[in-house]
Design goal:
The chain is mainly alpha-helical and 277 residues long. It is built from twelve helices and five strands. Strand 1 (10-14) and strand 2 (19-23) form a beta hairpin. Bound molecules: zinc ion.
Amino acid sequence: MLFQCSNPDFHVRSVQDDEIFAVRRQALCTSEVFRDMFTCCGESEQTLDLYESADNLSALLNLLHRPPPPPTQIKRDEYHLIPKVWNDPKTVIPLPLLPRLFALADKYALPESVVGVLGEHLLAHAPEEPLMVYILALSQDLHHVASRTTQYLQPMANYDLDEVKAIPVEAYHRVVQLQDTRVKAMRKYLLSEDIFPHGYGSCATHSRETTHLWNSKRMNLAVKVETLTDVAGEMEIAAYQEPIQSCAVCRKACVAAVEMLRYKCRKIPKTVDKLNL
Ligand SMILES: [Zn+2]
């Protein structure tokens, strides 16, 4: 990470790498730690020695001189895809850099606003790297980020012990409860969603065949439901199978049942903060 200051009036030196950076004194004062240092040491010194690697120091100086803006967000269409909001990847701080930035922000007591923005960058990685983001968010007490991330986690049993042992047991248990609630609710909705509810919309020609297809599909799916299963999306496949595919009446009933299922599943809690236990 390179650092450059256009109007420096002060210097800091990485003792470890003996590298000197020209900086703006006022920018350093964003950090409570530097503010205190300047208060007790006065204005006489022109170079401040710090026991940081040059790499760490330039990362810190960048945070102080040019606090990163939040990622640029693009709203998605109305199809309720997850995630609904998409972050422009060019504007997101890469995940491997974030632990170090959080550590520096903590060590040098940077303002809450900087930590909050780092949290937004962290959350942007949640759909791709949910477990890593979840653990890092918990370790930084970013409860909002941790909670929002729980919607992307795989079933906890799928992870190895080594991957999850950094999660405090209370938080782990909460995720297990969330996932259990989701699976039970999805299974319940799936098994109670008939294709011709009370005979409504029933097709005179294919009533038996279509009911059989729908029922065997949902039975098969019910035993396989996991926390991330798109139950409505899976059942929608029935609309492309015979006799439903070629019959307007059956197709209409199938689409209606899938939509009802989608509507109900959307109301199931996705994140631990929405869990009422
Ligand atoms: Zn039909």
